Amino acid sequence: MRLIELRLKDFRQFEGKHTVSIAPDGDKNVTVVYGTNGSGKTTLLNAFTWCLYGSLSDDFMFPKRLISDTVWNRLQLNATASAEVALEFEHNDDYFTLTRTARAAKVEDGPEQTPVEESILVRRTAMGAVEVKNPKDFVDSILPDRLHHFFFMNGERFDHLLSANAYQDIEGAIKTILGLEVIERGIAHLKDVEKRLNAAYRKLASTKESEILERLSRANDQKDSQLEAISSNESQQRLRNEEIATLDNRLRELEGSRTLQAERDRLVSRYETIKTSSRSLKASRLDLLGSRGFLAFMPSAAQAALARYEEMRQRREIPRGIKDTFVQDLLELGTCVCGTDVSRPGEARSALEAWMQKAGRGAYEEHWMSFAGKLKEWSEVNLPDLRDRLAEIDAQLARNEGELSGLDQRLSELSRELVSADQETIRELEDARKRSRESLSQLTYRRAHLDLSYRNAVIEINGAESDLRKAQAASAEAEIAQRRVVAVEDVRAALETLRELRTDDVRRELDARIKRVYAAVVKKKQTPALSSNFELLLEEPMDGQLLPKAKSTGEAQVLTLSFVGALADLAKSTYDESKDAGANSFLRGAGGIFPFAADAIFGTLDESFRRDVARLLPTLAPQVVLFLSKQQAGDEVHSELGPRIGSVAVIEERLAKIDAQPETLFFEGREYPYVSAVGGDGDTSAIVTITKPEV
Amino acid sequence: MENESSKAASRRVLEGMSKDAKLVLAEVLRIEQSHIYKSSPYGIVPELQSAVERVIK
Fold first, then answer.
1. Which of A111, A146, A231, A346 is the most interior residue, by most CB within 10 Å?
2. Is the ipTM of this complex over 0.90?
3. Residue from the list B18, B36, B48 with its beta carbon closest to the beta carbon of A181
4. Cα gap A153→A138, rounded to integer Å
5. Chain B residues with CB inside 8 Å of A504's CB?
6. Which residue of B has its CA nearest to A588?
7. DSSP string of A83-96, one letter each residue
8. What's the predicted TM-score (pTM) here?
9. Tens-place pLDDT, residues A616-674
């Protein structure tokens, strides 16, 4: 989707007709609309989402009063008025106008409106204009509703992406962009299809088949319920972790707990480092046992093999003495050791040639010698080496355990000190922290059980499926029913595997993109990360490993924007990939070209972050639309954004109060009305175009 | 965008499927894709069931 123009008619404070021209993609892809607080910047952002999806942001006051108040106040009783927003855009070389209208009749005096909304989408081609049916479905297919809050962003509320439950949003956005929804829905719907087919099969099945089907059905139910419980457990763990992080922040701020909390931060960091070290030691131990554990059985096995070999040699079961090269020499000479002429083909030569097969090959004995040497080496060198290495690992693990226990003890002491602090606030905070920690450890314990139950259900499904395949069908009809159940079960399992593979692939890809975007703007040691659980984190190196760090407002904003930029980039590359004729069929219709529009994006940022964010913005999406006040658009913002601006407008706030102080906006040496005192029956706003995009 | 190892893993999953399962998968993708942008997925389960019954008979 490429935006061209936004048009308003009597929409909220914009009485009359107004137009914002959107800068096209390219070097000058930024559109800036200036406006003072309350002049209608948030209204313009909402005009986009209302027109596209019929939705308005939660902070949009009086969402039913869409028709301009001044128009509504002047309206006669029983007369009708309307507000309208139209968006012109281009998609796949076709031009579209999407118009949403809110129409209401004034049945009584007062500001309340009961509007009826209508949306019309018209496609304009060389052949003329055609109305597109189901505009909602069409818009959803090119800029999905599920993604709109990423691409139409209220800068004052950006931090929701960093909250504990944002992972659902993030994971959902990724899946939408990648067309994984098709797979997700397929998995969900096949569950029901399978139940129906299973029931149909049972009517035709033998007792044995029925038993297997019952097992399969029970195991599938168990798997689904465990998955649900795991997902709920994960989300509760996130919430507990977020609670603990918030409480830690409070304890860091308070004078009476600052020192103890700083010590706790240090100990927790050390605790995590040791836990990571123990995990990797355990993985190494497993690896060693997996690849070389067999050495433990080597001494007796080697002895037995050597003894058996010698026995076979004694019994002449292993040829010795005659080598194939010796027989070859005789054949070349043409005379056998007994003096018989073997130079020509015949019985004697054939008999000698037969010895070639019986003779011990030169390499045979050499190989055995080398193998016997290895057997000895494994028993006498490698096995002791393995024992030493395992002992080293065990010793380090024991040291780690010791240190962890010491840390645990000190952490408990710290907690006790905080719980009995003089200040009541500190005591309450620490009490709450303890409760969250206890709940977290119960959740972790429960999670291990859920994982086990889930794995058992999967094993049971595989077993039942395998038994079903082997089961003799009661009739030809039952055989077909059996094939249907098995095929659906196979497809469901395959889709689950494909979903996992693809989601993880793209998470890693997105993680790399976020890191690239962030590093281009923020020159610090910290690194952003999209965790395997789809959490957007900021990490900092500590004790040789990366640990999550608390984010300042500026860092959080750059992190969020890096994510949006990476998402837009991913959407575009997926879109390009999906148009490729040889594309994976799952990608059909996936991705898209998404614009980015934001209100108050510089919010409360300090100067250096404003500059960083201003540098980042034009690169976020093919088209960027920004709503800024004069104060937000400082010199640093101008110097970074200036060369990329392709379209500029100002919202003139027209106040009814005649003695209000007027203000102007200076832009490139000219003056434009910013706040005007015009009188009249209510405050309104008007859009004044400063620079239109070059066509 | 897919990395090579997961591409290979996906390919193995698809290649390892039986003929029946491949036919069902094609139908599932076709039907789900045709429904993806519809406001309501009503009727999709019976449609999928009929498709399975049609391709395996």
1. A146
2. yes
3. B36
4. 22
5. 6
6. B33
7. EEEEEEEEETTEEE
8. 0.68
9. 889 889 999 999 998 887 777 888 888 999 999 999 999 999 888 999 998 888 999 99
